[in-house]
Each structure stands twice: as C-alpha cells, then as structure tokens.
Structure prediction request, 164 residues.
Amino acid sequence: MIILSTTYGDIEIELNMDKAPVSSKNFLRYCHEGFYEGTIFHRVIDGFMIQAGGHTEDMTEKETHAPIANEANRGLKNKTGTIAFARTDAPHSATAQFFINLDDNDFLDHTAKTNQGWGYAVFGKVTAGMDVVNNIGKAMTGSKKGHDDVPLDTIKIEKVTLSE
Prediction:
C-alpha cells in the first residue's frame, strides 16, 4: 500500500503486482527514491483524470529512468479510481508520470498491438481518499509555461509513505 500525502489530503493506493508487475515495480522504484515528493498535479481535467509525477512547482520536468514496457494488454481497465501511467504517442514510453481516472475511461484501454490501440497501463487503484482525488479534479485550471489544464493553486505531493 502506498499513501500519497498531498496538499489536498491523503490518497491511498494499492498496486496490482499480479497483472501489472513491470508498472507496479516501476512506480515503487520512484516511490522508494523519493522522486514523487515535491512533484505537483500538473494536469487536471474534471470528469476525466488528474495527472502527476513529473513536474516541480515551477513546471520543470524531472529527469526519469528509461521507459518501461506497456502492460495495458494485461486486462486491467481504466475505470474510476484506477491509477495508470501516462506516456507519449509511443506505446512503450511511460516513465514516472501517472494519472488517476475520475471516470470510466474505456477509450484508454488496450484494443490492439498498434500505436493507436495500445492504451494506457493501469497498475493499481485508489483504496481510500477518492474524495481527495475528486476534489483535485475540481481545481480551477489554466495555462502555465506552455502546459494547459494546470491547477491555478499548486497541488503538491508532499510525502509518499509505503507500507507492506
């Protein structure tokens, strides 16, 4: 279990090591390294998702490890409250940035082993703090340093706690 302590409250996450071992281990690696502490929720779209894990408060993108294999084809779906890795247009490009689904986003699920169909790899779910997730989703947003949908008031991950 992982607790993300944010400026809006705590979000408890349970990883799915069985169906998404590569993604889960990658997320844990960044947690153990303290990588997420001090990063912000830099992309928030109400009714869709909240994204974090890559930018500092001044919108500087943090240096990451190499990308991982996309596990979106392992059966986990982008349902409300699930956590998945963000990526570029390339299917196997996820590094540290993640998002939490605010709705059932089945259009993000794997449909084919093509660039278009790969989808976004879910690797866990929120088990407590969905009220915090939804409150973050309601934040007022604007543009900042070339990025859209950035919360006007900083929403920061202050601490990450891991418990067995």
